[in-house]
Design brief:
The complex is a heterodimer. By secondary structure, chain A is α/β, with parallel strands linked by helices. Chain A folds into two domains: 171 residues, 3-Layer(bba) Sandwich (FAD/NAD(P)-binding domain); 135 residues, D-Amino Acid Oxidase, Chain A, domain 2, CATH 3.30.9.10. Chain A contains nine helices and 24 strands. In chain A, strands 6-7-5-16-17-18-15-21 form an eight-stranded mixed β-sheet. Chain A has a six-stranded mixed β-sheet with strand order 9-3-2-13-24-23, with helices on both faces. In chain A, β19 and β20 form a beta hairpin. The longest helix of chain A is centred in the N-terminal third of the chain and has 16 residues. Chain A starts with a strand and ends in a 22-residue tail after the last helix. Chain B has three domains: 208 residues, FAD/NAD(P)-binding domain; 138 residues, FAD/NAD(P)-binding domain (3-Layer(bba) Sandwich); 78 residues, no CATH class. In chain B, the strands form seven sheets. Chain B has a five-stranded parallel β-sheet with strand order 3-2-1-7-20. Chain B has a five-stranded parallel β-sheet with strand order 9-16-10-11-12. In chain B, a hairpin with a 5-residue loop joins β14 and β15. In chain B, α4 packs parallel to α5, α5 crosses α7 and α6 packs antiparallel against α10. The longest helix of chain B is centred in the C-terminal third of the chain and has 24 residues. Chain B starts with 5 loop residues before the first strand and ends in a 7-residue tail after the last strand. Classes of the chains: A alpha/beta, B alpha/beta. At the A-B interface, α6, α8 and β21 of A face α13 and β23 of B. β21 of chain A pairs antiparallel with β23 of chain B, so a sheet runs across the interface.
Amino acid sequence: MSTAHDVLILGGGGAGCSAALHLARRGARVVLFERGLVGSQASGVNYGGVRQNGRHPAELPIARRAREIWARLPELIGTDAEFEVTGHLKLARSAEEEAELAGYMEVARAHDLPLELIGSNRLRERWPWLGPRVVAGAFAPEDGAANPRLLAPALARAARAKGAEINERTPVEQIAHDGADFVVTHGGRTWRAPVALNCMGYWGGTIAARFGEAVPVAPLAPNMLVSEPIPYFIEPNMGVVGGDVYLRQIRRGNVIFGGGRGASDPAVPWARPLPESTLAAMARAVELVPRLAGIHVIRSWTGIDGEMPDGLPVIGPSRTTPGLIHAFGFSGHGFMLGPGIGAILAELVLDGRTDVPLEPFRIDRFALGSAT
Amino acid sequence: MTAMTVAVVGAGPSGTRAVEVLVRAGLRPVWVEEAPATGGRIYQRPPAGTTRSPRDLYGTEGAKAEAIHAAGDRLRAASDWRPGTLAWNIRPGVLDTFRAGRHETVAFDRAILCTGAMERIVPVPGWTLPGVFTLGAAQIALKAQGVAIGSRVAFIGTGPLLWLTATQYLKAGAAVALVLDTTPLRTKARAAAGLLADPATFAKGLALVARLHLAGVRVIEGGTPVALEGTDAVEAVRVRDRRGREHRIACDAVGLGFGLKPESQLADLAGVPFRFEAIERNWVPERDRAGRTPVAGLYLAGDGAGIAGADAAELAGARAAWAVLEDAGAALDAAEIARLDRALARLPRVRAALERAFPYPSALAARTPDATIVCRCEAITAGELRAAARASHVTGGAAEVNRAKAFTRVGMGRCQGRVCGPPAAEILADALGCDVAAVGRLRGQPPVKPIPILAEAAE
């Protein structure tokens, strides 16, 4: 038995669930397939940063679009996913890093991103607990952080309420294009639609290869930690030039931080934090905030994302198969973009266009194999 | 063979006997123990300078405690003994440890995990009040520090430890305000036939009960704890007896405990599969009768591999060490292995009878009132957990415990679900109307216990 839909969505992470919601809200008949539970991999176990600060200029228009949706989450999905606007402070630990922060001010201006460059003295006036190695910072007041465990499931629930069919524990066993439609099968059931969205994170590479456009996507397992609760004092979400450590505190008191990579095997899928990365992240965290020395880490974790060689996702139409649209390979910074990606994909599907420039995210930019 | 490095984690009865066999075979195992001394929780040693005799400290088990301590003392020098060392992670061939302010890795060829047990609780309303201890903590206060948790103590729970601890308090001169066993007498009577397979232990148990009755201690069997009450600390317990009559009994401390669960986080991190043991109502790591797990080079012994008690732990520790030697192609003592196998084969029957005599009161846990905190680290109530089970929840319903953890933070705090995991599973299963095994178990993540943030990376 086969069911006719308008759109098949492969993958129940932030991008896929958000696409399901935006499409269903506009009346499209949508079915989503998720191998495990929605938001179980990179979308659900990431650091939770809602950050525009420091993003690649190509990504900023998507981030701006997403940030506008983050502000409207309660009306869209019934929860703010614990999104709090704390500001994001990107720190420099050397003169070279400071120069990079200064250089980015121009990028921010071009994209209307509020950003403030702060020198060493004023930095310490505002955040006196910063460590001595920090020499400068760039503060983006609109940024913040949220609870990644809530976002994708809440998006999926809202999509379901608007009529989307969300199938968890339903791996796509086969997908084919029969000339008119994409046909997905699982457990003897068949679904078909003229449009398919590839939102499968690292595993999106498999789908792309299946349709003759392989890309060099690699598994990425960011190594993250959380401390016991301590009195709240670190207001901004923080990162550094180079990205080897990132750190925030939630009002409950826990300090959430990360850096480096864990171990993973996407074939299982299996991912584990690595003690070497854990200990290195601890040392870097103390460098930023010396007061953290001696407090306890209660858990470490990781999950699997897809990383592209240039650190930018693949977003946009397939070059081989009409009706196939990709959105994967977010390279460790897709959580914040998710709500915006769904809106953009919905426009691509229903309007055939979007205002956000997607040229930098073309799948054929790597010119791999014969497909190009 | 002599080049083989065997790591033994834990220095309780099973770890001590495992190391003993390995040392006798000419090996020098790495012996990692979180506590400062050997003996484990069951035979925990008092601080240096204590003058009380083993008989005073350990009662009828005094001779066993002495034997384990003596073996431990002898074996420390024959092994790479690492006391005060937390093994916080395991991966193929490596233990990640924290010892004396430093993070260190310990390489091994094979490892025997003898990680012991911890208590199960039921979140009785008021259980987070100061003055409420687990039974084990109440017992260790007496054994290791020579202090009682209060001067008028109520003991509530089920299991041999309930009766044992109450008796020890009585003997130490504390007033025992109440012993409430959630298991009715008839349940215990039905299990008596199975318990008689171990007549000595059975007789010891009866003696404990008789002693409490003789002393005039108020005993309620088949009762229900309603609430532990007090403003700044526990002042009274409210309980219902078998006939449903409510009593309020004044006290200044409560010992609370409902059987044991394996401390199996390292086995979990090592990738050992788990199965639900219905009689014990615990998730236990898979192993064969000699202690071999499906993970190559990894062995389990003692209560950490499924609750079986201290005597069984000694046998299992020795047997797992022989399995290590056997798998490494070393010389074996076939008669000794056969003796251990015979002794181990007798255990499951007694154990099952004991679990049937003192079942975990799952219905009581499942009925935890909405306003009561289940996860004390994150202050998550039973009501929040039930709400997360409903499909109408903003994230959609949580159909298993890890999902409930993700949505509510239950089990996400300092204890990582070691305390709240079992009752949380009962509450969730009840809310979903399914069997407790169907909601699964909380997945472990390193570190198995909190580790400090250091300014320098390791080594």
